[in-house]
Amino acid sequence: MAESTTPTYTICQADGLYPDDTVEQQIFAPQQGQKYNLEYFQANLWPSQALEPKPWSAIPEDVRQRIHGILVLKLPFTREDVALFPNLKVILRMGVGYDRLDRVALAEKNITVCNCPDYGTAEVADHALALALTLRRGILLHNDRQRATPPAPYAVIETPLVRRLQRSTFGILGLGRIGTAAAIRAKAFGFHVLFYDPYSPNGFDKSLDIERTKDIKELFRRSNVLSIHCPCTRQTRESVGYDLLSLLPPGSVLVNTARGEIVDLDGVERCLKEGILAGAGLDVMPVEPVPDDNVHSLIQAYRRKEEWLEGRMVMTCHSAFYSPESFVDIRVKSAQTMRDVLIDGLDGNIITPDME
């Protein structure tokens, strides 16, 4: 009678985010009645302070051939990368979006794709409202002018940025987990909340006591603040350009904490110059990190502190998700989902090939 072999699960955290592997070893450890070997390691392809990533091929070939599960935060995973891992079974994006994974190539190899959708919901919603309020209350403008030489007079500033929040319209593009959390926060400040999301179930507006529109153009026409919370898909990529932004009421504020690829920066710059946008709060950019040799003219103007942008633009570095607590959540929840799917054979946060 042939002896049964003990399976081995080899799991890699690609980026190299953590000082130890205590959390992962505890979560991946065999539970009662289970018997298997575990190999877990961090590849250190893009640790926190590194400006550029190493390629996936930097992992030695013999190690790549053993890997069954990959946890990845920042790195893209292309068709060419898929070919480097012949025994890969599960890849998990440690975040909400999965647009940087080649899902077509992964599906062809029957590799399961997962994400971690619930680790930083509160932080991103808080960040979106913070950007909106910083602009809409003129906080950034006062900050800039009081630090000038000489400082501006100690007085109110007449500006299209500053408006009463109550009964103005806070528009939300995409009412998922984060969009819903942003809606609740906006309501607490007295905004009238209007959203557009063709995938949201009927009646969701009633449960939150907010207004829904089935027309994306109406969303833009009526929103004094427009906050983007949709995923980056084939339909939404580069979908918010001048044609939609120019529909906003004059003096509006745009906030993007979703994905930079959704918004056309040319359109944002033009609307800021034309006064359609009074301000823009951007946590995400079309290309991240912003390449030194190809900096968009809007970002150049922002970094040069050009006068026309004074107090009108805030840029944060895809950090809306971050707090020490959320970074713990993303680590624990990602590892638990990897265990559920790869080791225990359960369904957990699986992204099927047909999902947008």
TrEMBL record:
Domain (D-isomer specific 2-hydroxyacid dehydrogenase NAD-binding): residue spans on this chain: 130-298
UniProt subcellular location: Nucleus
GO cellular component, one term: nucleus
Assigned keywords, A-Z: Nucleus, Oxidoreductase
Coiled coil: none
Top-level taxon: Eukaryota
Pfam families: 2-Hacid_dh, 2-Hacid_dh_C
MF annotations from Gene Ontology: DNA-binding transcription factor binding; NAD binding; oxidoreductase activity, acting on the CH-OH group of donors, NAD or NADP as acceptor; transcription coactivator activity; transcription coregulator binding; transcription corepressor activity
One BP annotation, GO: regulation of transcription by RNA polymerase II
Domain D-isomer specific 2-hydroxyacid dehydrogenase catalytic stretches: 57-342
Family: Belongs to the D-isomer specific 2-hydroxyacid dehydrogenase family.
Name of the protein: C-terminal binding protein
Lineage: Eukaryota, Fungi, Dikarya, Ascomycota, Pezizomycotina
